[in-house]
Amino acid sequence: MNSTDGRMRNRAERQASAAEARRRAPNRHVCSQVDGAHLSDDVESRIAHPPKLDTRKAAEHCGIGHSTLVKYRVFGGGPPFFKIGRRVVYDPDDLDDWLEERRRLSTSDRGDARAR
């Protein structure tokens, strides 16, 4: 075995050891307990403030086409959105609320009755 092989093996062993240590290490974030489950601050933040979705991801979330969502934005009738400079983003909670408003019990339902 030459010295290069030994260095490469030692490097690989160090990387494997570091990866194992990271896997076993407790979460470095401060944790809180919610209903008996521990959540890190990062996870809590993402739950409280889910990331905003661009138009394509929002359309996918709603199960409609990208161009349909663009048309709703231009002509009205679509979900609320944020305009940040030239960028348009949607809040997933707003999308879910908008979808819920469109829940119908039958094709003749005009929206007066809600599914329970």
Structure description:
With 116 residues, the protein is α+β, with helices and mostly antiparallel strands. The protein has 2 domains: 3-48, no CATH class; 55-101, no CATH class. The chain has 5 helices and 4 strands, in the order αββαααββα. The protein has helices at 3-24, 41-48, 55-62, 66-75, 92-101; strands at 31-34, 37-40, 82-84, 87-89. The strands form 2 sheets. The chain has a two-stranded antiparallel sheet with strand order 1-2. Strand 3 (82-84) and strand 4 form a beta hairpin. Helix 3 crosses helix 4 (66-75). The termini are far apart. The model is unreliable at 27-34 (pLDDT under 50).
Poorly predicted runs are 27-34
Apparent shape: elongated
- Share of helix among residues? 40-55%
Mean pLDDT level: 76
Spell the H/E element sequence: HEEHHHEEH
Strand content: 5-15%
